[in-house]
Design brief:
With 281 residues, this protein is of the alpha+beta class. It has five helices and 15 strands. The strands form five sheets. It has a four-stranded antiparallel sheet with strand order 4-6-10-9, with no helix packed on it. A hairpin with a 4-residue loop joins strand 13 and strand 14.
Length: 281
Amino acid sequence: MKKEFLKKQQESVFQIDTETPPRRARNFRVEVIVTKNDMIAAVVVRTENTEQCSVSEFDILSRLYASGVRVGIDYDLIANIISGRRYNEEIPIALGVTPVRGGDARIEPRVHLEEFTTAELLRQFPGQVIRRGVPVDLDEVIAEKIPAEPGRAGYTVRGRMLKPEPGSDVPFELGDGVRLSEDGLRLVAAMPGMAGVEKGRIAVKDAEYEAWKYDVKLRKGNMEAVLTIQPGLTAQPEHNEDWFRDLVEEHGLKFGVERDSWRMIPPRLRSAEVRVIARGE
């Protein structure tokens, strides 16, 4: 009696209903259209029964995936197609990502830079304020380059990467008295002085560059003394006999001095003047 009961109980536990549920009626067709160099994908749900179309979000997604569409899918729009019964209508459903060009390099000054006032400018427009630049120390950073950006890659709807165009570089325009750092990203002072812009180039000048400068050098085995006059920005000083005598004494010239050399100096110097003022025998 007990064995019969256990047998019936076992049969009831392992009894399986083998009846197959009816398949979902398929009254639609999903089409995927990829255009514009794989940058746009659209879907169309084709059906004649718009009121009782059995399409699901999974049906649309699986068709997109089967067509290789992976990027830029608007999942909310897929749900809207179902809820809004937007059938027999070509609807853009995925957009590729356009690559973004990188930003160009740029140079940013680290000190206030102005165009140096030149002697020529003062002659043309007398009385104006002389712009001497700003003081800088040796190796002080005057300007810095912000490197060009590589840009941002794009992707087609099928996941193919689109390389971006990198930004353009911009070179430093180097004048006198400056140099580049080892990494090429900073322009620094190669000497202490005044920083400014000269003919479009960043430069560092001597702190007293606007003053008239006189230099006497010996050459040819000390057989010649050569005077160099570098014009300044101020009015030309008077070059007379007294001035020349003081110059000779200051540099210790004792023999072969051409006493009338000062007369050959033009009354209006516009560029450097180089002249032999003493010759040995």
